[in-house]
Write the structure tokens for this entry.
Amino acid sequence: MSAARLHPADVEAIAQRVAELLHTVHEAPTSRNDHQLVTAHELARMFGFTRGWVYANADPLGAARLGDGNRPRLRFDPDIVRERLASLLTKQTVTSR
């Protein structure tokens, strides 16, 4: 099975949207400590995702699992998520060339 390829125009559109989201999140005033973890709901709101998408992509986003059991609570470091999204975008750009 070969890797999915995106059209260069699609990659550019994704890159532009991620840049917009990162700029918005970076400039948004916040009272949070820089290292405070956020919930899936908060992360979804910060980055413009749905909560379901955040849960479905928890591992690639670097989720921290709190507790044991089948459904531990998930928390996310927005800085790590930002880095991982940038890394994924870079990989998509390289794959599409």
About this structure: The helical segments are 8-27, 40-47, 51-56, 78-96. The chain has a mean pLDDT of 81. Residues 8-27 form the longest helix (20 residues). Strands lie at 64-66, 73-75.
